[in-house]
Amino acid sequence: MSKPLADRVRPQTLDQVAGQKHLLSDGKVLRRIIEQGEIPNLIFYGPSGVGKTTVARIIAERSGKKLYCLNATTASTSDIKSIIGDLGGIDTANGVLLYLDEIQSFNKKQQQILLEYIETGDITLIASTTENPFFYVYNAILSRSTVFEFKELSPEDIISPLSRAVAFLEEEKGIKIKAEESILRKIALSSAGDVRRALNTLELCVLTCIKDGVATVDESVCEELLSHSAVRYDREGDEHYDIVSAYQKSMRGSDPDAAVYYLARLLAAGDLPSACRRLMVCACEDVGLAYPQIIPIVKSAVDIANAVGLPEAAIPLADAVILVALSPKSNTAHDAVFAALDLVNSGKGGSIPRTLQNKHFDGADNSTPGQFYKYPHDFENRWVDQQYLPNEIKNAKFYKAGDNKTEQKFKEYWDIIKKRK
User: Fold this and answer.
1) 368 falls in which pLDDT band (50, 70, 90)?
2) What phi-psi label fits residue 78: left (phi over 0), alpha (psi between -120 and 50 degrees) or beta?
3) What pTM did the predictor assign?
């Protein structure tokens, strides 16, 4: 079985690497490190298919060191020891460069085995990870490495490697490929920033369209293949948290288009629970008292979505997401309860006033027995002035009315009742 197209057309120079201009343009730190030849331990952090492995291979070729490649998801401790056993040989006289993919999958003990040889310089480590290394990489290795973040590629970044791949396939297979730029752009747009995924899609398009030595890639074939393309999504990884964060922030920011887009990303990956949970949180936290009726409305939409399941669940959720995005916003309840929680968690507070306690018996030491609670419904406008907070914090204020019509109406009403106007 031949290697994937992404491996067959892998860039051989830094200038051929797609995107990552913030790292690889002339004068940028990583490029200067690579060109001067003294390679430190490096950690490459970013999504899959953005050039981490490619850059590591280019570095290895320039360094003159023997390259070993391990994937931490399948490698074992014996694999590490096997590399260590090769140290000092003729082919490792210039040292060893170990490219360790998905380093976050190595446990602490495995990372510690490497540490001794990293410190002596016998092994130069280039590790890559799709997770935040500051959370997943052993601190001792992290402190001896320089971290570079690789960014998700834009569609414009991916067009160039797709064009190179067309020329490569024509020569490799001895055929003529007809693929309009609009087709290449459609593939690039659908690749979610992953050049490997884009190249694999292109190869499938070509292979299914060859006839009489010509591969005419038309839009219908492209769309059919793209419809079966897997959505890149990891429910436990950084990308999950990035998407749900963008989802809620788009609703909070009153952008219905962005909110629906991130809803679609969640649903395409089958993550109905996250879509529902963040939607309900946003309705309560970000709309809240500006439009309190939205809370039962959103809950009903979520109940419907869970009752009908995917794909139909998208419809009630879209209704609710757009409603949340377009509704007036208020986080006054959120701020009030967390201000109260901060005070409670700090240990401040005091005894509940006697008037509010759930008891009716006074000890002999109480000189003024009686609860003295005033029942508000016995008074005009169903309100009476009495103290509810403990003495120690009786003047504390947690809630401040928002500037929306609903809360201002409530405030106006109570200002009149409480004789503040």
Assistant:
1) low
2) alpha
3) 0.54
